[in-house]
Amino acid sequence: MAEYRKVYGLGAEFGNAGELMHAAEKIRDGGFTKWDVHTPFPVHGMDKAMGLGKSWLSAPVLLGGTVGLLTAVLLTTIPSFGIYPLIVNGKPYDWRTLPAFFPIFFELTVLFSAFTTVFSLLIFNQLPKWYHPVFNWERFKRVTDDGFFLIIESRDPKFSESKTRELLEGMGGQHVTLIHD
Amino acid sequence: MSEAVVSLDTPKELERVPLVTNDRKLSWITESVSDIVESKTPLWWWLGFLITVPIALFGLICIGYQISNGVGVWGENHPNGWAWDITNFVFWIGIGHAGTLISAILFLTRQKWRTSINRASEAMTLFAVICAGIFPGIHVGRVWMAWFLAPVPNANGIWPNFRSPLLWDVFAVSTYFTVSVLFWYVGLVPDLATLRDRAKSRVARYIYGLFALGWRGGNRQWRHYEMAYLILAGLSTPLVLSVHSVVSFDFATSIVPGWHTTIFPPYFVAGAIFGGFAMVLTILIPARLCYPKLDDMFTRQHVDKMTKIILLTGSIVGYAYLMELFIAWYGANQYERAAFWNRAFGWYGWAYFCMMFCNVVSPQIFWSKKMRSNYIVVFIVCQFVNAGMWFERFVIIVTSLAQDFLPSSWGHYSPSWVEIWTFIGTFGIFLSLFLLFMRFLPMIAMSEIKIVTPEADPHHPMHRKEHPATATEGAH
């Protein structure tokens, strides 16, 4: 490559989920912050190995569900009690009929929560992102098959091209590669 | 009896049958699932598609004919304002429930065997709900006014009646479909990324890549992904139970004898799961036959467990049938008694006994382990269940309407060719969509089934090559 390309980070491949987890524990203890492991499936216990806490994706969902419930309450009560009270077969149509709206309250709460879950997932994960420097690494394709990767970004304050490489190789990382942007 | 000795040995721990048999590697899973999509279209697929598509098209022609001529081309009359249309609607929507049960309820209860069947079952759910959605849309007669169902004031400035179960149904079914699509798509993203990374052609890489959203499998992504999946499963669980309950309210909140019962919601939900599992097996057993490679993922264990669920839910349905009869007698309401007497021995008694045999008697064969492991028997019983569940809805709807309070207003019902072919057409739509799904999307959730292999467990002894001696101590 003749042109100058910015270094994104250093990537290493590990043999299996167990090895990757031990490596992650060491990187966590080494005080790195801008790094991630990439696996074909969610590895049980990896959050702890990386020092990550609980995902708070549930917080926006609570908000979304509440908005859904409120929407349903307004959608049913404003027309039924205000704009256009509908009298069917002489049955009551006042506030005591509120339980008849419960199915709609429930369905809209679920609907809004589900949409909030999916959109929050996209926002939290910064997806869609069709271009990413890691895709420049040829071996990285195996991440969706059976590859286990650890990538440390160059913007990490502890990152040093030579020392980090040594660190990764020392932990049993194979094919340690410099990834360009 | 002198040699009767009490054994003091601790009983051997029962070994779990592995979910993926033959110790398959992760790459084998990727390869064999992706291969279905990537290899050349097999001949049987084209043959199947060439049969299902014309059926689907003819069904659509029938719908077009009905829309242009009005609902008079159906056999419906007074008093049978609902007949095959709503029967088919309830039949299809019920089938969808098995998919959501597998994807959501079995996920929350940590039933790991669900991973190899959840993708295909969820797809089945979506296609079944699409077929279901056709019927309420067209039975309104003037389909161009179907928008009156929407929660907005209609052309006359009248708002819909939010206290009506029919409107609850609109909310329930549309929410169910939307949430099922979201759940299914979230599950698909990592597998679409697999197909993107394996794609040979530029077009395939572009399309799969587009829908894979740039998934990179980072643990910082998986963390939120797993939480999102859990939340969606948690939302879908009460949702699926609510949908068929709401469908049953369409009947239960009316005063028609035979409909006006409190047992309907649980009875409908159990029946939906029952019929849905039969449909899952109906499509997965042939699919497995076409792709022998799937044997190690869709194993005998799966069929065994699903047939047990069919047996359980079938027995619940049987209990509900008997309880309905008991309450009709015990309740001492003469109209209710007459309705049930007519159900069994009236004009449509043959349909009632058909339903009883198919839904209650036929699944009892699954008490035998030998029968559960015989795929031919399983497939045949599933066809009985499919037919039986259709008859159940027909019996509930038509017998109650045809012979209600006043004998002077009784009326026979028989379907017209348009109705029959519209229903057959929905099978064409359902199967065509499923064939397309098999061809273009991974029918087994690769990223999920990989989790249940021993290779995926970071604490598994096989990952400790430096201390082989301590390997037997296991993971703590």
Q: Would you summarize the structure shown here?
A:
The complex is a heterodimer of chains A (181) and B (476). Chain A is an alpha+beta fold and 181 residues long.
Model description:
The complex is a heterodimer of chains A (181) and B (476). In chain A, helix 3 runs antiparallel to helix 4. Chain A has 2 domains: 97 residues, no CATH class; 67 residues, no CATH class. Chain A has 181 residues and is of the alpha+beta class. Chain A contains 5 helices and 4 strands; from the N terminus they run E-H-E-H-H-H-E-H-E. Chain A has a 4-stranded antiparallel sheet. Helix content of chain A is 43%, strand content 14%. The C terminus of chain B is likely disordered. Chain B contains 15 helices and no strands. At the A-B interface, helix 1, strand 2, helix 2, helix 3 and helix 4 of A face helix 1, helix 5, helix 7 and helix 15 of B.
Attribute tags:
A: 181 residues; alpha+beta; 2 domains; 5 helices; 14% strand; B: 476 residues; mainly alpha; 15 helices; globular; disordered C terminus
Rg of chain B, nearest Å = 25 Å
Mean pLDDT of chain B: 90
| Portion in strands of chain B | under 5%
Gap from first CA to last CA of chain B:
45 Å
Layout of helices and strands:
The complex is a heterodimer of chains A (181) and B (476).
Chain A: E1 7-14, H1 17-29, E2 35-38, H2 46-50, H3 58-83, H4 102-124, E3 148-153, H5 161-170, E4 174-180
Antiparallel strand pairs in A: 1-3, 1-4, 2-3
Helix pairs in contact in A: 3-4
Chain B: H1 26-38, H2 43-69, H3 84-108, H4 118-139, H5 165-198, H6 202-212, H7 219-252, H8 264-290, H9 300-330, H10 334-345, H11 349-361, H12 369-372, H13 375-402, H14 417-440, H15 446-451
